[in-house]
Write a structure and sequence with these properties.
single chain; alpha/beta; Rossmann fold; two-stranded antiparallel sheet; 25% strand; globular
Amino acid sequence: MAKPLNIIVCGSLVPDPLQTLEPVQTPQGPGLKNEQMLPSVLDPWAACALYEAANLAKQRAGSTVTLVALGPKAKLQQLMMTVAQKAPFQLVAVNAPAGGFTDARETAAELAKAIKSIPGLDLSATLLFGGCASASRDAGVTLQFVAETLGITEFFMGVDELKLADDDTFTVLERIEGGQYLSSTCSGFPAAIGWATGNLPEPPNNPQTGMMNMRGIMPALMKAPVANVGVGGIAYEKTEVPSAKRATVVKKDMAVDDIAKEIVEWIKG
């Protein structure tokens, strides 16, 4: 009989991308204007990882999904009211700043520390999930730093599919150039998976699942350790919203080659 899995998902809150995000300088370093007032959502790529984890846990009896989230405790509590209804999971929270300017290595160190504190953690039956990118701190290295700190050497990035066999071998499809996939087979655990968008739709809200999750989420938030995560050794000279430039020319009856040449000349200029 296949043994249960420990699926750990690293994911946190990000400002709702539908809001206007304006960078400003604060006494603590660069940040976002009115950041504490901005509504938050679960990072989209981390959300895909969470849904994939919940789906995989259904295939192995006794498997558990643990969401390890780093962010301000008050905003995490607000976010969990929604996320808790999507899939069953346990929460391990770290009370720390979370934003686009925090240092990836410091963030990864706190996430790895939180994962190590999970009671009875067996890395030989563990899959570490996360997003391949982030709508906030898109350094692209945070999950890999976490995996290295935990001693996990099997790492796959940009994964859209994971198929697990009863003998603990699994196959992953990683995105590569040209819209193609690299298929890799791994003979066992542990392994770290950086998910792209996957193949699953967003689960509907389930109030019963939410109520079950909140029984463990609230105590987890109450005992969330405080961590000092900053910008590390990074020095930001200037932060600003990229300027938009639009030059529109309306012409009729041009050949395709002429249109292409004109676009190239415009880009060169």
